[in-house]
Amino acid sequence: MKKRKIVLVVLIIIVLISILITAYLSQNKDDEIELGKYIMQDSEKPAPWAWVVLKENNEFEFMRSLATSYIPRGTYSINDNILTLYANEDETYIFTIDEGNLIFQSGKYAVRMIEKGTVFKLSNKE
């Protein structure tokens, strides 16, 4: 009888450890996204004049429109499926991440060029 209790306790501990490891690994996946060039979609077709490039070391480039020569560059962070691009203290851009796509939410220097809800999809071509 004592052996059964010990075996039961060991099994419960193993199950709890497995659940904790699985939860930890899935939490870290939420804060990851594939690096590369995300191209704005215009009616489900690529619109190559606007794009976001996510690079190693959490660096980015964001081409908002052909109408501007300034291309914001800086660092980015991901938290709870929210991608934030930091070009400088006064210039940030917010995207939500949905099934590997970036969905534009806000950014004071982009709102005239890109509508809220615009989707950017990962392109295989750089």
Notes on the structure:
- This protein is of the alpha+beta class and 126 residues long.
- The protein is built from 1 helix and 8 strands.
- Helices cover 23% and strands 44% of the residues.
Please give a handful of descriptors for the protein shown:
126 residues, alpha+beta, Lipocalin, 2 domains, 8-stranded antiparallel beta barrel, 23% helix, elongated
Short recap of the structure:
With 126 residues, this protein is α+β, with helices and mostly antiparallel strands.
Q: How much helicity do the residues have?
A: 10-25%
- Unreliable stretches: none
Overall pLDDT: 84
Task: Give the neighbour order of strands across the main sheet.
Answer: 1-2-3-4-5-6-7-8
H-E string:
HEEEEEEEE
CATH topological fold name of the largest domain: Lipocalin
CATH second-level architecture of the largest domain: Beta Barrel
Helix count, per DSSP? Answer: 1
* CATH top-level class of the largest domain: Mainly Beta
Question: How does the SSE layout of this entry go?
Answer:
Layout: H1 2-30, E1 36-42, E2 45-55, E3 59-63, E4 73-79, E5 82-88, E6 91-98, E7 101-106, E8 119-123
Antiparallel strand pairs: 1-2, 1-8, 2-3, 3-4, 4-5, 5-6, 6-7, 7-8
